[in-house]
Amino acid sequence: MSLFSPTTVGSIGVRNRVSLAPMTRLRASADGVPGPIVAKYYAQRAGIGLLVTEGVFPSAESKAYPGQPGIVTDEQAAGWAKVADAVHAEGGVVFMQLMNGGRVTHTDITGTDRIVAPSAIAIEGDTRLADGSKVAFPVPHALETDELATIRDEFVTAARRAVDAGIDGVELHSANGYLLHEFLSPASNQRTDGYGGSPEARARFVIEVAQAVVAEVGADRVGIRISPAHNIQDVWEKDDAETRATYEALIAGLAPLGLAYLSVLHGDPASDLIQDLRRAFGGTFIVNSGFSKMTTREEAVTAVDEGIADLIAVGRPAIANPDLVTRWEQNADENEVDQASVYGPDERGYTDYPFLQG
Ligand SMILES: Cc1cc2nc3c(=O)[nH]c(=O)nc-3n(C[C@H](O)[C@H](O)[C@H](O)COP(=O)(O)O)c2cc1C
């Protein structure tokens, strides 16, 4: 198979095996509405087979960053409908990453009276408020067992809203230290109520969320992203038997659902752990080798050629190259990312990167 050959994701055809990795770009309004520049940004990148949006919050208390978009209010949903229309007008396919930020936030960002997590353990360090000032991560409220259904249902409602807005599907963000990942790691989940304490128990909530979202919008419209053994935002996961057992339990619960895809962020996607999880999952498989070194054309081409994955998620190169797939097909030069403008606030460094001439 070639990176440039078409495939399907769920029941939708995509024109190549490149996927836009979800990337938080913080260009929404203060009330979480994605405006016209957001629609333009994704539409510019619609030549990428599968677009996955930035992490989008499914409830006010789960907003992680100022400038992050939500899918809670009618105004937010209307903004996403314009994104979907703009992408579809260019022949693209777009999934929305649903991201409950868990403890990676602050009440001054959410505007709520609490932030939530599996256990009352704060991240060491600071987060940044809208005015740029730094503030220590607070101790989160440990979710009561009977509150879990509400958190699950927020994902369900968000998925329904996204699909009703014309978005092609949703990706559950269970990676990178946010709420669902916090359930998977013993460092952030010390629960004793059947949702923590063993690999199966830690995997349980993520599986329940996936089941509920599938029941609402259909498995073809639901993907999931994980990052096994990714130590980030104080979700410490050793590369050991405990981590393997947790992710095996997770995939054992997810495989029967027939999800649209499993997307994995891991430094070595060809490793035994990741390929074993892929086999256990049995469906469309997307990889990204992580933050430490930027994805290259060669890495992406080789990964598909060698059958390491069905699609490759590409992040930073697609920030700077709206026509990334065309450039990669032609082996053309690439624009470089301007680091200063990655996280906003406006169209600079967002929708103004040049396309290839001619
Ligand atoms: C600016 C930026 C924002 C990101 N935001 C998200 C996010 O919202 N959700 C997520 O799952 N990963 C996020 N990531 C991780 C990327 O999806 C990807 O895994 C990472 O950039 C490594 O891939 P690359 O080398 O192709 O850039 C982000 C990365 C960057 C650079």
UniProtKB/TrEMBL annotation:
PANTHER family cross-referenced by the UniProt entry = NADH OXIDOREDUCTASE-RELATED, NADPH DEHYDROGENASE 2-RELATED
Q: Which SUPFAM superfamilies match?
A: FMN-linked oxidoreductases
Membrane-crossing ranges are: none
Return the similarity comment: Belongs to the NADH:flavin oxidoreductase/NADH oxidase family.
This entry's Gene Ontology molecular function terms read: FMN binding; oxidoreductase activity, acting on the CH-CH group of donors, NAD or NADP as acceptor
Which named protein is this? 1,2-oxophytodienoate reductase
Q: Which UniProt keywords apply?
A: Oxidoreductase
The record ties this protein, via InterPro entries, to: Aldolase_TIM, OxRdtase_FMN_N, Oye-like
